[in-house]
Amino acid sequence: MVKFLYGLKRLTFTLKPSEDYEIFLVRQNEVEQYIRRIRGFIMIGKPPRMVIYGMLGVGKTHFLYHLGYKLKDLARCIYIEIPPLHRRSRFLDVHTVIMKKIGLQHIRNLYMKAIEVTEPELFGLNTYFKRFSNNKQINKSFDEFTKLRADLAELIKNNILSRERWKSLMRFIAGEKLNARDQRILDIASNRLSEDEAVNVINSIANLIRFFENKMLILLFDEVENLRPLVGDSLRMFTEALRGLVSEDSDVGTIFASTGRTLEQIPIISDETIVRRINKLNYIEFKEYSIKELRQFMFEIINYLRDEEADLSSIISQISMYTKEKIDEKTYPFTYEALEYIIREIEIRFKSGQIEVLRPKEIMEMMDISMAKTLLDNKTFIDTNVVKEALTL
C-alpha cells in the first residue's frame, strides 16, 4: 500500500540519526567541509578534536552519527550519549559507558594480543588460549607497548589470561566499583579506578586499536550539556579527565556536541585550559535554519524517502484529476501548496513564540501529522485542506 499510494519507502518523515546516518540534508556542503578537516587530521596521524554546539534540534546528533559513518574506513568511532548526571557524578560514570560501547571482550582481546607480541611466553603458561598467529613479536615491554602505567600494566598482564580472574579485571578496567570479593581476587588496595587511570586506559586502548586495526579511536560525545550539574570536586575531576583526553599526548580523537546558543553556555569544554588544547578554530556553531533551508529540507526528505520502484507518473496523472493544486514527483504525496502551508505555519508559530528555534524538527512533525491523517482518511495525496485540518486538531 505504501508504494502504490504514496511512493515512499516508509510513512514517517522524522529522521532517526541512528538509522538515517548515511545522509545529511540541506547543509551537505558545510558538513562535508567539517568531515574533510577531520579526515585530514586522521590521515596525518593527528587525533581530531572538535566541538559543535547550537540550539536543540539543529542537527548535532545527526552529524555525529553521519560522521561515524563517513569515517568508518579510517576510524573506530564510538557514540557516547552522556547520561543525566548529578552534582557529585564522576568521570568514571561516563568511562563505564565508553568501555561497554567499545566492548569488554574486544578490549580483552586487544590486551591479549599485546601480551602475545611483547611477552608470548605467558601464553605458554596457559593452554586455554590460542595464539593470535598474525601478530609478530616486537621488542617492547608490555607497559611500554600499551602505554599503560606500570601498576595497571602489571595488573592486566597478571589477570587477563585467567579464566577465574578476567571478569573481575574487566569490571575494574570499566570503572565499576568492585565488591569485596572482586577486590580480593585481584589483590588490589582500591576498589575503583581513579580518573587518571581511566584516561590512561582509554588512551592505551586507542593505541592498541591503531596498531592492531590500523584505525584511530574517536569518541563522539553527545549531550555534553548534561555535565552542567557538576560542582566542586566532581567538576574539577571531570575537567581534569577531559583535559587528559584532549592533551597533545593523547591518541584519542574526541568530538563533542552540546546544546547552547554560545560557547560560554557549554559546560567544561568551554574551560580555558581545554579550549587551548582543542583550539578555537575547531569550535563550530550549528546555527538555526532559515525559512529557505526548511523549504529545501522538505523537498530533500521526500526525495530521500522516495521508493524508486513506484510508478509516480501514473499515480500523479490520476491524482491531478482531483485537485487544482500543483503536484509532481518532487512533492508527492504532498502538493506544492500543502508544503508551503506548512512553511507559513512554521513562520507564524515562530514569530508568536510557540516555536523557539527554526529547525527541521517541527517540519518533520507536521509532515508526519499530515501523513497520519491522510492514511486514516484513506486519501491518496496531501493537499492544503488535509494539512490545515491535521494541524488544527
**What composes the largest sheet?**
5 strands, parallel
CATH-defined superfamily of the largest domain = P-loop containing nucleotide triphosphate hydrolases
Largest sheet strand order: 2-3-4-1-5
CATH class category label of the largest domain: Alpha Beta
Residue-averaged pLDDT, rounded? 93
Q: Predict the CATH topology of the largest domain.
A: Rossmann fold
User: Quick one: overall form?
Assistant: elongated
CATH architecture label name of the largest domain: 3-Layer(aba) Sandwich
| Total strands | 5
End-to-end Cα distance, whole Å, is 26 Å
> What structural category arises from helix and sheet content?
alpha/beta
Order of helices and strands: HHEHEHHHHHHHHEHEHEHHHHH
Helix content: 40-55%
Give the tally of structural domains.
2
Describe the structure.
This protein has 393 residues and is of the alpha/beta class. The chain has two domains: 2-8 and 289-391, no CATH class; 27-288, Rossmann fold, CATH 3.40.50. Helices cover 50% and strands 8% of the residues. It contains 18 helices and five strands. The chain has helices at residues 2-6, 28-43, 60-70, 91-102, 104-118, 121-124, 142-146, 150-159, 166-173, 180-186, 195-213, 232-245, 272-278, 291-305, 312-319, 336-351, 360-376, 384-391; strands spanning 49-54, 75-81, 216-222, 253-259, 283-285. The protein has a five-stranded parallel beta sheet with strand order 2-3-4-1-5, with helices on both faces. α12 links the parallel β3 (216-222) and β4. α4 packs parallel to α11. Residues 125-131 have low confidence and may be disordered.
